[in-house]
What we know:
Low-confidence stretches: 48-55, 77-81
Oligomer: single chain
Number of helices: 10
Distance between the termini: 32 Å
Structural class: alpha/beta
CATH architecture of the largest domain: 3-Layer(aba) Sandwich
Radius of gyration: 20 Å
Order of helices and strands: HEHEEHEHEHEHHEEHHEH
CATH class of the largest domain: Alpha Beta
CATH superfamily of the largest domain: P-loop containing nucleotide triphosphate hydrolases
Number of strands: 9
Largest sheet: 6 strands, mixed
Number of domains: 2
Strand content: 15-25%
Amino acid sequence: MDIETFLNxxxxxxxxxxxxxxxIVGRPNVGKSTLMNHLIGQKVSIxxxxxQTTRNRxxxxxxxxxxxxxxxxxxxxxxxxxNALNDRLNQNVTEAIGGVDVVLFVIESMRFTDADxxxxxxxxxxxxxxxxxxxxxxxxxxxxxLNAFIEGVRAEFDFAGCETVSAKHGLxxxxxxxQVKPYLPESVSMYPEEMxxxxxxxxxxxxxxxxxLFRYLGEELPYAMNVEVEQFEEGDDIYHIYIAVLxxxxxxxPIVIGKGxxxxxxxxxxxxxxxxxxxxxxxxxxxxxxxxxGWADDVRFLRELGL
Length: 307
């Protein structure tokens, strides 16, 4: 779409149209990324069962005839393990909350912890905050118990509204969007309607590899790793992508590579297939492992990685 066509369309539907930013916040592993992916109808933020899979703020965009919702997925707010990386992730959360039109505070059904309360302390007092109770599909409480749980949480903060959802199964999302929409300012859209994220293809490629690392490695090792996209070439019918997996210690390399290279091969193959689906073309992907000691405490290097 050329810019003139885009501006003409926006002018035609400007009356009553709404557009604004919505931050999605919560402690690690409450389903923020899954929620955003289902709200926009496409996977742009990586997910896994491990906490803090998300390390960057990722923007997801949903556009219809009446509004454009610009969601900002944030890292889980970390209260335990402190280093330069986690300090930067926490800063990403606090920065994301400032300057948005609505905040979605995501918690897990029937579980409200000190970590949730730490995030609650960050919630703005002059911006609408909607409580989103996720994972209601687990069936771990009857309606009366769930209502009592929600009332207990709502007593601790002046929420603008509340919605129960199952992000994984797409339940309650239309009702959540309906709650958000009135808080968005009247405005023309900021992005073309076919756009689902403002992140580059290069960034998304790195995130896909990092997701596979989280899915196929042990509990601790993914937190000692990151990825660096060293080369990204877009051809007419094929992308050539070269990504380094950064580990902190030499003895971590064989864990990532696996016996006979099988684990790294599995990670690379699944990442390539996801990239081909996302980019709509063939992908040549090369992934290797290299040691960079102390990367998680190297503030300059974290800045280079976009963290």
